[in-house]
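Human:
Focus on the backbone:
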Amino acid sequence: METLFFLIVSLVAIISAILVVTCRNPINSALSLILTFFCLATYYVMLDAPFLAAVQVMVYAGAIMVLIVFTIMLLNIRVNASKSQSHKIVLGSVIGFFTLLNTAVIVFKSRVALPNGPLTGDIIKQQGHTELIGREMFTTFLLPFEITSILLLVAIVGAVILAKKKI
């Protein structure tokens, strides 16, 4: 039953990912990307990582996609279908096929490495994913976390300054 559910979710993810690339309307492409993000969140739930699934839905399918859709609507992108684009589609499809083939060869020829570290599955289930992630983020990785927040603040200030007509 679990394998059948995985196959159905995988089929939906593959079809929606193909629609992201092939849709001529940018809004339809963005909606297909949202469906792909929900499929990825489903994978996280199946891997027993509910915190990552929630972050996937809130950050990517929620906030990021709202920004992308608003940008598409504000820019009023027009779709121009011309015959000069057909060779680019064929070239992109060939490159994508060979990339997929290369990835499949790497996945099937490689061997799985066992996880190493102090955390086992029992410890994770006992303490919880969110608590362990929070503890590591605010103890071991505090400096990179703070540097990232400062970089985001600088980016926001820079965007506001660039957006203003006069300072």
Observations:
- Residues 50-75 form the longest helix (26 residues).
